[in-house]
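Review form for a predicted model. The reviewer records the input and the model, then writes brief findings.
Reviewer: anonymous (R2)
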Amino acid sequence: MLTRDLLLATIGLATIVLAMTSGSASTPPTAGDGETALPEPETTGGMALSEAIATRRSVRAFRKTLLTPAQVGSICWSAQGITDSAEGRRAAPSAGALYPMTVYVVDADGVFEYRPKKHALRRVRAGDVRADLRAAALDQSCVDAAPTCLVVAMTVKRSARKYGTWGERYCLIEAGHIAQNALLQATALGLGGVPVGAFDDDRVAAILGLPDGCEPVYMLPLGVPARG
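Model under review:
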């Protein structure tokens, strides 16, 4: 029969092991090259797609509740995640499977680039830039009121190499696919969001530190709705 001290030590060891295996340890898992791995998304169960479509509404006021890594991971995966590892296909359709779009996650900790192949975030810039984004977005309060803001950016030249002047059109169409996927997933998770398209492109690109040729096309402030 276990003594009291041995029993407590055994429980403590089991708790540590459980925290490490569940990804809840204080140090998040890394995916290499300064990347932080995201929890794998749930791809079965949950809210029915028809219900998410019926209940999705634009939300501009949010609680201060932070999004969990699992929620961020699910939304990023819905936007640009790999759904066919053999061929590298992603959640949103792309003309010619060229994938000229990049999703950035902006929160109080900084700016992060979503890396679909590793389902991970790579830090691009440290520090909270949401107030700067709000100023660049015609002072729309939802941009910095949301705990997390996704920014969808396009690199037109990737598409233009094959489609010429049609490349930009295909990028803009793809941005719409990405935004709708993200908003429907947010709804299914009990969150809300709103598409924002009015902003100063150059200012946003500078704030996020986007590479040359990469242009912001959409902002998606996300969070727990302040009402309901």
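Findings: The longest strand covers residues 215-223.
Further findings: Strands lie at 30-32, 35-37, 82-84, 89-90, 101-107, 110-115, 120-126, 148-154, 192-193, 215-223.
Recommendation: see findings above.
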